[in-house]
Write a structure and sequence with these properties.
The chain has a 4-stranded antiparallel β-sheet. The chain is α+β, with helices and mostly antiparallel strands and about 130 residues long. The protein has a single domain, classed as Pantoate--beta-alanine Ligase, Chain: A,domain 2 (2-Layer Sandwich). The protein has 2 helices and 4 strands. Helix content is about 40%, strand content about 25%.
């Protein structure tokens, strides 16, 4: 009697099922990593744009109380948006708001800058600082 070597059909089906389940799990993990990377990139861009707003506000005159908002797709923000960057319209995805409040101390105002995505009520980045007259 000769011994046959190899896998039975049942063993092959079980092995294929295990490999299939592992592949689906790895693909799900990969998709989650891509979403996390995109979110991290949005946060980094929002932080950079918020810092740009802070620098613009600090370079300007003493701010009057009130609120402003807009998008980064206007001509004011278009400088540097094109060129070597692979996505020339990346700024268009973000909105900004600047809220200037009076404080109890004379000659001191609180300025808050927020940068976010248009479809979200919660900003990605919010910076607050005090401005002296």
């Amino acid at each position: 009697m000769s011994k046959q070597r190899g896998f039975t059909l049942l063993e092959l089906l079980i092995a294929i099922a295990v490999v299939g389940i592992a592949t689906v799990s790895l693909l799900g993990l990969h998709a989650r990593n891509l979403r996390t990377a995109a979110r991290t990139q949005d946060l980094l861009v929002a932080e950079t744009l918020a810092a740009s707003l802070v620098a613009t506000s600090r370079a300007g005159s003493y701010p009057e109380p009130g609120q402003e908002e807009g998008r980064f797709d206007t001509e004011r923000w278009a400088a540097g948006a094109t060129g070597a960057h692979p996505a020339a319209n990346w700024r268009e995805r973000f909105t900004w708001s600047r809220n200037v409040l009076s404080t109890p101390l004379p000659g001191l105002r609180q300025v808050t800058v927020a940068v976010g995505l248009p479809d979200s009520d919660i900003p990605l980045v919010e910076l607050t600082w005090l401005v002296k007259q």
